[in-house]
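Retry 2 of 3 after timeout on previous attempt. Resubmitting structure tokens to design endpoint.
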């Protein structure tokens, strides 16, 4: 490995290391490859384990959030499978948050940071949730239209 001397005055540690990396790129990549070739199972295992760990931690945070929101469907009391319960925004959502999943929602992030439980969010089972967004009247109207077209 070639030395590149001390950190420059206006250089961060990261920038310094990047300079070091560019100078010694070939050797570093070769050394990494050697290590990966000698430890294939270990690497795969570590990767799998960290991926699983992250998934479990993510689910744990979501579960805590859902429990804080009541832990059951607020309309029909369904509470068997917490994984499928959904969050419903009573006052609708801003356009920028429209297509975000639960992990990306600002209310969820806020809960993770401060533990504050949002007031305008209802926990619902998928059935009750769909029923809210597609009310039964909508179906009756549609049925009428179908009969007229026949
Ligand atoms: Zn329900």
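Retry 2 succeeded. Sequence:
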């Amino acid at each position: 490995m070639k030395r590149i001397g001390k950190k420059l005055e206006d250089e961060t540690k990261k920038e310094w290391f990047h300079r070091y990396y560019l100078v010694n790129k070939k050797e570093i990549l070769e050394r990494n490859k050697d290590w990966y070739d000698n430890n294939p199972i270990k690497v795969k295992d570590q990767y799998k384990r960290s991926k699983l760990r992250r998934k479990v931690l993510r689910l744990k945070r979501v579960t805590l959030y859902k429990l804080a929101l009541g832990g059951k469907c607020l309309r029909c009391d369904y509470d068997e499978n917490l994984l499928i319960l959904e969050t419903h925004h009573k006052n609708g959502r801003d356009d920028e948050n429209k297509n975000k999943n639960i992990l990306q929602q600002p209310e969820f992030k806020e809960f993770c940071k401060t533990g504050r439980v949002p007031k305008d969010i209802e926990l619902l089972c998928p059935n009750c949730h769909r029923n809210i967004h597609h009310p039964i009247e909508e179906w009756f109207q549609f049925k009428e239209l179908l009969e007229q077209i026949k």
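Attempt log closed. The two ends are 81 Å apart (CA to CA).
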